[in-house]
Write a structure and sequence with these properties.
It is a single chain. The chain is α/β, with parallel strands linked by helices and 256 residues long. The chain folds into two domains: 164 residues, Spore Coat Polysaccharide Biosynthesis Protein SpsA, Chain A (Alpha-Beta Complex); 84 residues, no CATH class. Helix content is 42%, strand content 23%. It contains seven helices and eleven strands. Strands 1, 2, 3, 4, 5, 6, 7, 8 and 11 form a nine-stranded mixed sheet that branches. The protein is globular, with a radius of gyration of 19 Å. The chain starts with a strand and ends with a helix.
Length: 256
């Protein structure tokens, strides 16, 4: 069982070395860099990765390109702001030692996020299972703009013990920018292209419903101030994507 680890990057010089180091167990590391303007590509190469420079086509398309460029059928996909925990590496080593034909075609891995100085357990942020280890002959990346994921065709999926350690949000200002500049606009675009439409009522209720779901129903309150922050940003994200969707609808009407 030979495994190619893949990472897509853009200006990830603060993360890429540690990401590659956490993949030292892989048979190869492939980094597809969308023309970073910092030292990302150089640091990845120095860390032993095979680096491919390519223009940005979108998350799913770039991750699929990385899978296609890999030398081996088994793919382990890692984001630059993630690390492989010791338990997860042990689970992967156990799979690789298994010479039987009982391996699944894809494995779901829990992702644990570090936020405001603590590991988050509530708010819908954990276990946040991601299908990251899979046979590329059976799996393909899907998702036009956001929330890309691997879909397995005619195969078996199992859960793999151990966590991906996620260090995505540096501080409150970074979290706010991520929502306003990336996630809300992309989510609104994806909703619009899927034929979904919003209304004044949906805009008004999106935020309080998102806060309730995160803070109460998904036990965000157990994470203290961090849980309150996560729920508040979830509310902001829900409100903003519906507001942006409304703006797209108005533009569509004006063009008719």
């Amino acid at each position: 069982m030979k495994i190619s680890a893949t990472i897509i990057t853009f200006n990830e010089e603060a993360n890429i070395r540690e990401a590659c180091e956490s993949l030292a167990w892989a048979d190869e590391v492939v980094v597809v860099d969308s023309q970073s303007t910092d030292q990302t590509a150089q640091l990845a190469y120095q860390s032993g990765a095979r680096v491919i420079r390519r223009e940005w086509p979108g998350f799913a398309a770039q991750k699929q390109f990385a899978s296609d460029a890999a030398s081996h059928d088994w793919i382990f996909s890692l984001d630059a702001d993630e690390r492989v925990s010791a338990q997860l590496r042990a689970s992967i080593d156990a799979l690789r030692a298994n010479q039987s034909d009982q391996l699944a075609d894809g494995y779901l891995i829990s992702r644990r996020s570090f936020y405001q100085g603590r590991w988050i357990r509530g708010g819908g942020w954990y276990p946040d299972r991601q299908l990251r280890l899979f046979r590329k002959s059976r799996g393909r990346w899907e998702g036009k703009h956001i929330h890309e994921s691997v879909k397995i065709k005619d195969g078996r999926i199992e859960k793999l013990p151990g966590d991906l350690l996620h260090y995505s949000v540096r501080d409150a200002a970074h979290h706010h920018r991520m929502i306003g500049e990336r996630y809300a606009p992309l989510a609104a675009r994806q909703m619009f292209e899927a034929g979904r439409r919003t209304s004044t009522l949906k805009i008004a209720t999106a935020a309080p419903l998102a806060f309730l779901r995160s803070y109460v129903l998904r036990a965000g309150f157990c994470d203290g101030l961090a849980g309150l922050s996560i729920a508040s940003f979830a509310a902001h994200y829900a409100f903003l994507k519906h507001l942006m969707l409304s703006e797209m609808q108005k533009k569509e009407v004006s063009r008719r």
